[in-house]
């Protein structure tokens, strides 16, 4: 082999590598999201199809998004906050507008969600709806011969040390509804104080405020807790898999609803991969993933028909706009957030 | 190159790493925290300002006093509890165990848990103290309880027990170290002079071990004071400690200025305690050594 042919060989090899690289995007996506939202059953096919490598970091609450992005560092490309948090991220400039003409499934998504106020600013769209559900209550079936129907059961003296509530400002939403204050995202100082007093009154009943999905499952499994609020569909299915019979219910005082959206972090260097991911997440593949892993309802009713049985479709309220409207969809608290957080901390510091 | 200048270079080379370390990892972060504590929260995040609102809020809102005094109380109980367990143990190891090998084994038994993750150790206590846990099963099997009790877990007692267990090595190590250094001749001399064993302990051994006790107490106290895992794992609805509140200000509330002010107040309390204990230790030395 002479020098010339070596030269050609090397050039050819280099050319091949180069063209291979350009046929795939070969970017890297760092996603800040919820457990179950980056399951390998969805991520592996996505990586194979696009060449975008995905690494996920998980949050324990919506309150984790802004601090992680505020700390800077340009680590994350995509975040998946709920609809009560999206607006803060937009206003803080942490996320960038999305070109919805690049999102193929956009018109298939529920209009209620795509038009949600929390995703829009100055005529621009900032998020692609991904999954939704309710925050119902859940109880151990064998401990309640008469099924509870009202939130007031959580205050029943009979249930001393048997109740758990999510360690989150949303505990105030629960107490406010019991007080008859349905404007839970816009409570006055007096209403917050009343909710705070209600929660203090409830403390003998509280075994533990649950902080993670896994913790709540453990509390039921080890017999500590009989009744709590829950991320609808998720913990109950984990408990069912353990053979523990729990029942979810929407109390007569109503339940909060949530909706998570994928957003692109401002200034990401991996924009092309980010759009690929957003497209995948809102397509049938991505929606099937979140349904199968988490048991959450789909934001894409068109795609949902392809992977849900008709029974599942109605069980998850995909064909029931009335149900969706009955939920008190989480809303950004804006400048009132610190007041809510302080009230919740005050309950816990007594 | 002349000898003095190379000596100076040498000194600079030896001293720089610790000085740079202190500057980069202590001085700069604390200065930033100090500056933050005068900023103000403005939706959606926070902005530079110079105002004392954060400190005022800590003083006027009773929740911060509650949490701080609760944290102090728990740290005190943990330190006292750890001391009451650690001192006899260390004493036993140094003065009663004759075999050096056995002493080594028993000493390692206390220190070895440090190699296991704190989280894992705290989790073990959940399985011990829980309603269907080991303690309940045991008490029911010997007939003390007829049905499982829920008083062992998810309250402040559970936090104190867990924290004593987790931080006890930091109490045993310094006490063991001082007890080991006490010359046998001193206690022997005391005995020779006709002083009983109990008085010898209170007049000779205990005073000489004060520096170790103070060191252990200070360490356990500071570690407990800043803990936020135990409240999360084994604490109940009344388990919130000051580090949890700080974490929630930096996280949930996105009120870094208030969090920074709280962190500085907390640091001030810890520094005060370290200073007092340092005085106490000096006092012990002046009187007995």
Major sheet of chain B: order of its strands? Answer: 1-2
Beta-strand content of chain A: 15-25%
Count the strands of chain A?
14
CATH class of the largest domain in chain A: Alpha Beta
Name of the CATH homologous superfamily of chain B: MetI-like
Count of separate structural domains of chain B: 1
Average per-residue pLDDT of chain A, rounded, comes to 89
The CATH topology of chain B turns out to be: MetI-like fold
Q: What is the number of independent domains of chain A? A: 2
List the topology elements.
The complex is a heterodimer of chains A (350) and B (289).
Chain A: H1 3-23, E1 28-33, H2 40-50, E2 53-58, H3 65-70, E3 78-79, H4 86-91, E4 95-96, H5 111-114, E5 120-121, E6 124-125, E7 128-135, E8 137-140, E9 163-164, H6 170-178, H7 189-202, H8 213-221, E10 227-229, H9 234-241, E11 246-249, E12 256-265, H10 271-282, H11 284-294, E13 297-298, H12 301-307, H13 310-315, H14 321-326, E14 328-329, H15 337-348
Chain B: H1 3-36, E1 40-42, E2 45-47, H2 53-60, H3 62-96, H4 100-111, H5 118-129, H6 134-141, H7 156-181, H8 184-192, H9 197-225, H10 229-233, H11 242-250, H12 256-288
Antiparallel strand pairs in B: 1-2
Helix pairs in contact in B: 1-12, 2-12, 3-7, 3-9, 5-7, 7-9, 8-9, 9-12, 11-12
Describe this protein's structure.
The complex is a heterodimer of chains A (350) and B (289). Chain A has 350 residues and is an alpha/beta fold. Chain A has two domains: 3-130 and 259-319, Periplasmic binding protein-like II (D-Maltodextrin-Binding Protein, domain 2); 137-254 and 332-348, Periplasmic binding protein-like II (D-Maltodextrin-Binding Protein, domain 2, 3-Layer(aba) Sandwich), CATH 3.40.190. Chain A is built from 15 helices and 14 strands. In chain A, helix 2 links the parallel strand 1 (28-33) and strand 2 (53-58). By secondary structure, chain B is mainly alpha-helical. In chain B, helix 1 (3-36) crosses helix 12, helix 8 runs antiparallel to helix 9 (197-225) and helix 11 runs antiparallel to helix 12 (256-288). Chain A binds chain B through residues 61, 63-64, 66-67, 70, 87-89, 91-92, 161, 169, 203, 206-209, 211, 222-224, 334-335, 337-338, 341-342, 345-346, 348-350, and chain B through 41-45, 61, 63-64, 66-67, 70, 130-133, 148, 150, 153-154, 232, 236-240, 245, 248, 250-256.
